Amino acid sequence: MPAGVVDAAAKGVRLERPAAVLLRRASGAKQLVTASSHLLFRATVLATLALVVLFAVHYPSLLSRSFTLSSSSSSSSAEPALGSTSSPRRPSSHRSLLGSGATYGGAAWERDVRRSATPRRDGGLSVLVTGAAGFVGAHCSLALRARGDGVLGLDNFNAYYDPALKRARQRLLASRGVGVLDADINDAALLERLFAAVPFTHVLHLAAQAGVRYAMRAPQTYVASNVAGLVAVFEAAAKHADPQPAVVWASSSSVYGLNTDAPFSEDHRTDRPASLYAATKKAGEAIAHAYNHIYGLSITGLRFFTVYGPWGRPDMAYFSFARSIVAGEPITLFRAADGADVRRDFTYIDDVVRGCLGALDTAGRSTGSRSGKKSGPAPLRVYNLGNTSPVPVTRMVAILEKLLGKKARKRVVTMPSNGDVPFTHANVSHAAHDFGYRPATSLEAGLRHFVDWFVQYYKLDVKGTTGALAGKTTKRKSMAMSAAS
Ligand SMILES: NC(=O)c1ccc[n+]([C@@H]2O[C@H](COP(=O)([O-])OP(=O)(O)OC[C@H]3O[C@@H](n4cnc5c(N)ncnc54)[C@H](O)[C@@H]3O)[C@@H](O)[C@H]2O)c1
Ligand SMILES: *[C@@H]1O[C@H](CO)[C@@H](O)[C@H](O)[C@H]1NC(C)=O
C-alpha cells in the first residue's frame, strides 16, 4: 500500500528538475517565437502544465501532517529481541505522525483507505479499529477480515512496550489486506477525514494507555489516550460521520476496583477505582453515557478481564514471567494483604475476540439523538467479557514452568497498594444472553497456545538448552509485572 506513497515521493524528486529546465526554456520563449517555433513553444507550455498537474496530484496537501498507511515501509526493527521490552519508555504519541515522508488526504490515500475498509461479503460491516496494532486490536481485525468485513486500523505505535511487536502485528495484518494508519486518536482532523472518506458502520475503539502501575510514572498519558482520546473518537463518530457508526469500546474489569462480592456483575458498584487506569476507564463509561444521551450514539462498553494469548502484551504478568523463566531471572509474585493467593479471571484472546464480534453484530443503530425518533433511543450497553473461573497466579506460573520445561525463581511479597487488585471474577450472563458469549478456553490450553507463539516469535530453543536460552537474552533486572490491566 505505501507503494503509491513512496512512488509519489520518488516522482516528486524526479519531477522538480525537468520542470525547472522547462520553465527556463519557457522564459526564453521570445527567441523561439521570433524563430516562428510556435509549435515548440506551445508544446513546452503544455508539458510544463502537465508536470505541474502531476506534481499537484502526488502532493495533494503539502501542509497536512504526514503518516503512512500500512506496514512494509516501517519494518525498521523486524528482528524481535527477547528482553528488549523490559523498560517501557514514555510514549511519544505524536512522533509517528511526523517525518514519515507521506501525507494524508489525496486520491491515492483515499483509495487505500477505502480498499481496506470495504467489506467483501454482502451485508458485511465496515469497521474502524483503533489500537489495531495492539494485542486485542490485531486479533479482532484479523477475525473481522477473515469473515469478510472491511477493516481499517489506526494506531500510534507508541513505545509503552516494544513497538517492534506492534510493527510485526501490522505486517501480519497487511498480509491479510488490513491497513493500519500510523496516527493518533487525538488527531481530530484525521478522524474527520476518515469519516468523510468511508461510511463506517462500526467503530471498534481499543486504543488506550493500558497497564496499571505505569500510571505512577506517566499519569498524563492515561488522560491523553483514555479520556481525551475517547472524547475525540466519540466526537468524530457523533458529529462528523454520516451515517453515525455504532461504537464498541474497551472498558476494563478494573472498574470493579476493590469489590469483593464475586462474581462481578455489570450492575455492581464501580465507584472505587484502585488505579488511575481504572479511574480513566470509569470516566470513559460516564463519557459514553453522555454521548449516547446527547447525540444518540450507539455505544457498547466491554469490560475485559485479564486477556492473554499469542501476540500478547509484554507488560502483562504471564508474558513477562515467561521471559524471566526462560532467562533464569527471578519473578516477583504478590500475596494479598490478608495472605490469600492473588487470583485472576484469565480470559483467552479467542474468547474475547468472539465477544467483541458478538457485541459489534448486535449493536443497534445510532439514532442521531436520544429520543423523539421513531426508532427509539440509541443503545447504551456494558458487558463483562471474562472467563468466569479465577485462577491463582501461582497456578499460572506452574503451568508456564511445565510448558517451558524450566522452574521459575520465585520471590513472594505482599501486594503493594499501587493499582493491582487481589481478585477478579466475571459474571458474563448478560453477554451470554445477548450475543451467546461462552468462554471456552482453559488456562492450560490458552497458555499452551501462548508459549507456542512465544517460542516461535523469539526463535527460542526450549528443549534442553537452558544455557543457550539464558545466553540469548539480555540481562535485565527482574520486574514484578501487573497481573491485571
Ligand atoms: N489486555 C487486557 O487484559 C485488557 C484488560 C482490560 C481492558 N483492556 C483494554 O483493551 C484495549 C486493548 O488492550 P490491549 O491489551 O490490546 O493493549 P495494547 O496496548 O496492546 O493495544 C492498545 C493499542 O493502542 C495504541 N494506542 C494507545 N494510545 C493511542 C492513541 N492515543 N492513539 C492511537 N493509538 C493508540 C497502542 O499503540 C496499542 O497498540 C485497551 O483499551 C485496554 O485498556 C485490555
Ligand atoms: C450473574 O448475573 C445475573 C444477571 O445480573 C444474575 O441473575 C445472576 O444471579 C448472577 N450470577 C451469580 C453467580 O452471581
Automatic annotation (TrEMBL):
The chain crosses the membrane at residues 39-59. It catalyses: UDP-alpha-D-glucuronate = UDP-alpha-D-galacturonate. The keyword Membrane applies. The keyword Membrane applies. It comes from the Eukaryota. It is an enzyme of class 5 (isomerase). InterPro entries: Epimerase_deHydtase, NAD(P)-bd_dom_sf. Residues 127-362 form the NAD-dependent epimerase/dehydratase domain. It is found in: Golgi apparatus, Golgi stack membrane. The lineage of its organism: Eukaryota, Viridiplantae, Streptophyta, Embryophyta, Tracheophyta. PANTHER family: EPIMERASE-RELATED. GO terms for cellular component: Golgi cisterna membrane. This is UDP-glucuronate 4-epimerase. Belongs to the NAD(P)-dependent epimerase/dehydratase family. Residues 70-101 are annotated as: Disordered. Its main location: Golgi. Coiled coil: none annotated. Keywords: Isomerase, Membrane, NAD, Transmembrane, Transmembrane helix. Its EC number is 5.1.3.6. It is a multi-pass membrane protein. One of its GO terms (molecular function) is UDP-glucuronate 4-epimerase activity. Pfam families: Epimerase (PF01370).
